[in-house]
Amino acid sequence: MKKILVLGMILLAVQLTTAQKVIRKNNNVVNNNNVGSWRVIGSRSVTHNADHDKLDVTHRDSFRKLKLKVTDSPLNMQKMVVDYESGAPENIELRQNIAKGGESRVIDLRGGKRKIKAIHFWYDTKGFLNGKAEVTVFGMK
């Protein structure tokens, strides 16, 4: 009986230490295994020379929410268009000024969990003296 109890404690300890896979990106810790946690979908470096960019999504997980994080320079995000694996694209009006180091509001995707093919952004950078802004897209399963 004592051996079974010890074996059970060891198995529990192993499972707890390996239960979550963590990604570190730009000093942000993102848990990518659990439903309800934020996962990095991708990043795009945007400049004052353009007003539109496209982020191709390389993995095919399903997401129900999105949010954006902007680093290195402030950004005025006008809108996004999300292309799904199936179904019509979704136009999302943001019209949000995002400060350097700031985040957008949480965006609920139409139709619940969806597989994303690409995300298009329309934006204004906050002056050419600020340099490039890094836009990171997070998705919630």
Q: What are the main properties of this structure?
A:
5-stranded antiparallel sheet; Jelly Rolls; 141 residues; mainly beta
Any chance you could write out the topology, listing elements then pairs?
Blueprint: H1 2-18, E1 22-25, E2 28-31, E3 38-46, E4 52-56, E5 62-63, E6 65-71, E7 75-84, E8 90-98, E9 107-108, E10 114-125, E11 133-140
Structural account:
It comes from Flavobacterium cupriresistens. With 141 residues, this protein is mostly beta strands. The protein has one domain (21-140): Jelly Rolls (Sandwich). 12% of the residues lie in helices and 51% in strands. The chain has 1 helix and 11 strands; from the N terminus they run αβββββββββββ. Strands 4, 5, 7, 8 and 10 form a 5-stranded antiparallel β-sheet that branches.
Concise account of the structure shown:
The chain has 141 residues and is mainly beta. It has 1 helix and 11 strands, in the order H-E-E-E-E-E-E-E-E-E-E-E.
Shape: globular
| Class inferred from helices and paired strands | mainly beta
CATH topology: Jelly Rolls
Count of individual beta strands = 11
Output the number of helix runs: 1
Q: Sketch the major β-sheet.
A: 5 strands, antiparallel
| Poorly predicted ranges | 11-32
Average of pLDDT: 79
**What proportion of the residues form beta strands (DSSP E)?**
over 45%
The top-level CATH class is Mainly Beta
Return Rg in Å.
Answer: 19 Å
- The CATH architecture name reads Sandwich
| Amino- and carboxy-terminal Cα gap | 41 Å
Helix fraction, binned, reads 10-25%
Q: Give the topology string: H per helix, E per strand.
A: HEEEEEEEEEEE
